[in-house]
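Checklist before submission:
- one chain only
- standard amino acids only
- sequence pasted in full

Submission:
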Amino acid sequence: MKKDNKVYSLIMAGGIGSRFWPMSTPQKPKQFLDVLGVGKSLLQLTFDRMLAFTEVENIYILTNEDYRFLVLEQLPLLTKEQVICEPERKNTAPCIAFASAKIQALNPEASLVITPSDHLVVNSHKFNECIALALDSASTGSLVTLGIQPVRPDTGYGYIEIDPNNRSSHSAQPVVCFREKPDAATAQQFLNAGNYCWNAGIFIWKATAIMEAFRFHAADLYRIFYRDTSWYNSPQEPEFMRKAFVECADISIDFAVMEHATNVTVVLSDFDWSDLGTWGSLTEHLTKDALGNAVIGEKVHLFDSENCLVHMPQGKVALVDGLKDYILVESDHMLLILRKENEQQLKHYLKVLETAKIG
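Returned file contents:
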């Protein structure tokens, strides 16, 4: 894919990733970790993926002030100006509005590719093809998102409805409706219908198009971030950002813009994707033995165990006997032993641990 100096990539890397405890902690969340055991963090893998179609000077990281030095340590090709640190967490709409306005001030003809930092993309070639289709659609003024062909009735994703008579993977399709995360029965209905896809949370649009979308659908955010763009890329930008984030609402880009706009299209994608939201989602992409066990760690020995995920530090000797459908993860003197069926309870368990710690 040929690089275009009008294309900018924004990588969102401010999340905490609590469902990947104990490896992921508030001090070093999962996007900064090598959860796949490949020698690179999820952030580094995402950065490499963006380099296929973006000049390095056009890549910006959206993160929290707490992680500024982690980003610069892991991505030494970036300058400190390319790390945009939100002063407080206000969800995705404010940080996207700020970064989009900042880049538009630099280049009024900019197109933006906005992606989370903690997703797994297995087939980079197909990913690049989808981005090329999305950029082509965005050039006409569309707000484009990537939709993933669902392979199961998953309740952990939002869904995008498209016209059942128009499901081409070779062009962007108009979005009929965005659907919130469904219950199990509704998710099965979506899968059976065949005209629903998972919302990957990857967006492509021209800077001018998202500015107009904020103006029409999120007037307060437009007023805060676009009414005076002279602050951007100036020594006064940090102070402007601090005040703007105090004033703005805590809201996602989906709620603020995407669910209201009428010029939204989706590119149907099949590049083997996962948002790596949980340990279970990671298991799907790891090599498994004959009994369905997935192991990261060179000295892990399993006996009479089935369908387990074991993630141990390098050099750690682990002997596992007689377990079925368990997740075992050790990191920094913390150990997780969790039944797979209870994985959605992990956040609750961590709150109990925190309460006990405080008490």
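Reviewer check: The chain has a mean pLDDT of 91.
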